[in-house]
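Example record used in the benchmark description.
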Amino acid sequence: QVQLVESGGGLVQAGGSLRLSCAASGSIFSINAMGWYRQAPGKQRELVAAIVSGGSTKHAASVKGRFTISRDNANNTLYLQMNSLKPEDTAVYYCNAELQAMGVMPTDYWGQGTQVTVSS
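Model output (structure tokens):
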């Protein structure tokens, strides 16, 4: 019964900012890692940024210095602050979590995705 729900996507002009949120709910025992992926039309899904349980983060080279991943551990909420957006950032953004639900083995969960469109 674990669910990931993304929000915060939308349409912005180049150079603008968006803040994506991903709320994890359900009977969660622990979260090992969370990340943001994106997929543009005709392209492979790619990792944008990730954060592990210890707090370490990594960001794809294409977004380094512009995007920042963070997590509110108390509320099991993941964020992606996106600044200086470019048209090539246009994609569906997906939240991912490697977590252990109550009574089951750790596994990956995915949100439904949220559309980010950056106009030139």
